[in-house]
Amino acid sequence: MYRVVKRRQLASAPCIVLLEVEAPAVAAKVEPGQFVIVRMDEQSERIPLTVMDFDREKGTITIVIQDVGYSSAMINSMEEGSYFLDFVGPLGVPSEIENHGTVVCIGGGLGVAPVYPIARALKEAGNKLISVIGARSADILILEEEMAAISDELVIATDDGSKGIKGFVTNGLEQILAQGTKIDAIWAIGPVVMMRSVANFTRPLGIKTIVSMNPIMVDGTGMCGACRLTVGDETKFACVDGPEFDGHLVDFDLAMKRLSFYKDEEERAKISKDCDCGKGAQ
Amino acid sequence: MALKVPRHEMPCQDPKERAHNFNEVALGYASETAIEEAQRCLQCKNPKCVQGCPVNISIPEFIQKITEEDFEGAAAIIKQSSSLPAVCGRVCPQESQCEAKCILGIKGESVAIGRLERFVADYEISKGCKIPEVAPPSGKKVAIIGAGPAGLACAGDLAKAGHKVTIFEALHVAGGVLMYGIPEFRLPKDIVQNEICNLEPMGVEILVNQVVGKVTSVHELLQNGYDAVFIGTGAGLPNFLGIPGENLNGVYSANEFLTRTNLMKGYRFPEYKTPVKVGKKVVVFGAGNVAMDAARTALRLGAEEVSIVYRRSRAEMPARHEELEHAEEEGVKFQLLTNPVSIQGDEKGAVKSLTCLRYELGEPDASGRRSPVPIPGSEFDIEVDTVVVAIGQGPNPLVTQSTEGLELNKWGNIVVNEETLETSIPGVFAGGDIVTGAATVILAMGAGKKAAAGINAYLKNKG
Lengths: 282, 463
Ligand SMILES: Cc1cc2nc3c(=O)[nH]c(=O)nc-3n(C[C@H](O)[C@H](O)[C@H](O)COP(=O)(O)OP(=O)(O)OC[C@H]3O[C@@H](n4cnc5c(N)ncnc54)[C@H](O)[C@@H]3O)c2cc1C
Ligand SMILES: Cc1cc2nc3c(=O)[nH]c(=O)nc-3n(C[C@H](O)[C@H](O)[C@H](O)COP(=O)(O)OP(=O)(O)OC[C@H]3O[C@@H](n4cnc5c(N)ncnc54)[C@H](O)[C@@H]3O)c2cc1C
Ligand code: SF4
Ligand code: SF4
Ligand code: FES
What we know:
Number of helices of chain B: 19
Number of domains of chain B: 3
Shape of chain B: globular
Strand content of chain A: 25-35%
Oligomer: heterodimer
Strand content of chain B: 15-25%
CATH topology of the largest domain in chain B: FAD/NAD(P)-binding domain
Distance between the termini of chain B: 57 Å
Structural class of chain A: alpha/beta
Protein name (chain B): NADPH-dependent glutamate synthase, homotetrameric
Helix content of chain B: 25-40%
Mean pLDDT of chain B: 92
GO molecular function (chain B): iron-sulfur cluster binding; oxidoreductase activity
Protein name (chain A): 2-polyprenylphenol hydroxylase-like oxidoreductase
Number of strands of chain A: 16
CATH architecture of the largest domain in chain A: 3-Layer(aba) Sandwich
Shape of chain A: globular
Distance between the termini of chain A: 25 Å
EC number (chain B): 1.8.1.-
Helix content of chain A: 25-40%
Bound molecules: flavin-adenine dinucleotide, iron/sulfur cluster, FE2/S2 (inorganic) cluster
Keywords (chain B): Oxidoreductase
Number of helices of chain A: 9
């Protein structure tokens, strides 16, 4: 059993929660870019979540979850001292951390959480780190302080202009390029539409762009093929070949369609339990 | 007189009813039936049946005990050679193994060895299994990777020899394909767990949620105090055909379809939260046990029409006889000598139809088998909303690729010494589907036992 040692609510509409969980074996091995699969109890789905932070000494893993449906709402309502039944990881291939030169790390919405450890590691590897984080509006922008603390430069974009630039993260990226900055590599993590627009924007510019895909998964070990994506001309399994891929090669439209496969069933699962998220510690 | 008594039928749930529930199809012999069936055995001096069994169970001996109504004695005899009798009695392809060689089968019907084995094992379970005796601690530690039939059998024998055994399993339960692949209606999960729960009192530690190759590695286990390692990670990499449309919504690998249903209990959605979606018209590619399981599962999940599409003819279908018959009785349709060419989707990316090509049997090839050849211009479309691809599994590379110095063959299976099952790395052994490619439960179990013997010898020499 894997105990939740800390809970912090990062936003309330949508509900985004940070949980620090005891999982020493995972914490000993995890690298930025990897993920875990969790199960709350016997009836639960296996839910993939990116590792947002880890503490090898304390033996903990930090995850950030956004409420999008039944399982994520249940996880978000977990209190300090409660337990996950299963917590598997680290899964997936770690990010390619090396000195690329100048890197831009883009996190959209919840995507700021998974991009955070990658950005930090890239900074530690000697890169000049420019970060772009965005959200629909200021009140659901997450991890701003954490990102500011590790970045040489931080650009904020909100759809409604309530903080930073009014617009999307791609507008932030445009602004950086307009200043004449030469970018050597980009990590872009967020909703699939966001990753697609970043990739479309950088493709003609020839800037290496890594995205982190989040298809529906079951086992996370390459056994079932649920997580398959088309990348270039090939079929890849995101759980073992990814989750990071060359954004210029990913078939985003297919990925979006595959994500919507269980829409009806998700609705059915939802009505069987009301979300009581939003309670608990700040 | 024995010859005149016909083989006793297996009582089964009515096909019409069972096609809509997940309860076990075959109900098992009653004691009287088992005794009568056991009496059919001629107690051959040179029993051919034993040669047909991959682990050489002393078949006439255990059958004799049944006639004496000593069911526990019968179980003890089987347990000398098999650690999973309740499983193998249910899922072994008996008709091509023990029963194929039974002398009675030449002129009439063979003894129902598998059914008797199942009867004995179920009897033992109902009485509460006895924990096997364990030798005094040897002071040696062995790590086992994968809790499928191979790993479990290996663990049991090593524990008996007094070694401290730890199993590392990637999923959240032990059992391998027995839990995630083979459906409840053919192999109840309680039966599987019952066979596994004997291991813990013997001192075997089962650690679930441990993906070796990620959280630890073979070399790390050796460095961390394990004296030997057994790799039994199975054939868990689904093959796809590589035809257009295979990534559309509604196209599943059999592994995904069955894992959602069995391991995650999707058939009890929404009580269990993992959905499994099946449309009205389902097509399954392939004709092995996996394909039959997928087809029959689809029926039970509410599909109106389920067809198997297979490139060869009926004679070549690799599934167990019983599964084929059961599938037919339940209403699964067969499109033989037919091969899919492409899958078409609608604007939402969901499967809409399937284009297939008809085949005919050509001249016999070198192996004497008539191989199928496509008939030009015979394309036709089938309307369909779910496709399940069940055309075999390859070796999962997570462990093999992360283990330096491990010799693999060209398909990615681990190369072993045939006698000891030792790999190219001293102290590291392997067996089951990861060595042979997708095979059977009994072969995997047999390999686990053989490797345990190899490991015992290795640990003795090591001192
Ligand atoms: C490698 C990976 C890393 C991830 N990391 C995080 C993370 O750090 N934090 C986080 O909050 N979420 C993360 N996700 C997404 C998370 O797993 C899903 O949000 C979750 O499974 C949804 O479950 P649910 O029952 O709450 O929602 P459901 O009711 O199942 O679905 C609600 C909506 O979410 C979408 N959805 C379903 N499954 C997924 C999925 N696997 N990924 C994305 N959307 C999905 C559906 O399209 C649906 O519209 C990650 C996914 C992957 C594959
Ligand atoms: C649907 C289906 C139906 C079948 N029907 C029959 C039948 O009727 N009769 C029959 O005899 N055979 C049948 N088989 C075949 C039979 O189940 C297999 O041959 C047998 O299970 C192989 O055993 P194994 O121990 O080698 O591997 P598996 O049963 O595959 O077990 C391997 C285990 O290793 C674990 N593992 C994998 N990678 C790692 C890792 N990196 N770290 C830790 N653990 C890992 C897996 O999660 C799994 O639990 C069927 C197979 C399928 C898929
Ligand atoms: S283990 Fe299988 S092959 Fe051997 S006797 Fe039993 S059913 Fe027959
Ligand atoms: S071959 Fe048939 S009849 Fe002879 S001992 Fe075996 S089961 Fe009995
Ligand atoms: S989640 Fe099953 S193969 Fe990736």
